[in-house]
Specification:
By secondary structure, the protein is mainly alpha-helical. It has one domain. It is built from 6 helices and no strands. The model has no long low-confidence stretch (mean pLDDT 90).
Length: 159
Amino acid sequence: MDATSVQRRDEPAVPSGGALAVRIPGAAATGAALTYLSLHLVQEAYAYDARVCADDDSVCLTPWPVLSFPASFAIALVGLIVAYRVLGIRPGLTVIPPTLLLAPFPLSAALSTVGKWPAVVVGAVWAAAVALTAWRPYRILGLSASAALLLASLIVVYH
């Protein structure tokens, strides 16, 4: 067995240029779609709560704002698993958790400063940057982009 056919388990094969040109924009499109869906779901839940409780003078709570967060998290998790499996972005256990668990920081920073549509773009950039970390030659680029985005968002959120 020659050295070129042996590959470490944590280093998936680097996709060819054509495959990479589909996977990274696919990850960005998935991130944008899931960001839009999550933001829309949460905003509509709060809007519904405000409409229902507008005429009530006492404490008025509907379950939808509380349930919208775990629902958007579950939808995003299933969406990332399915999309990354279709796109061939592997290993999923190293790409999906940081994409999902750290995304609220850049998304909330973008949403609070510039609005919904730029937050959707930030979600796309975040998903593409984290997806780049799956392959060794692009790992530094992906980590640098995602770290810069995370640092900037933490400065905005906690400033």
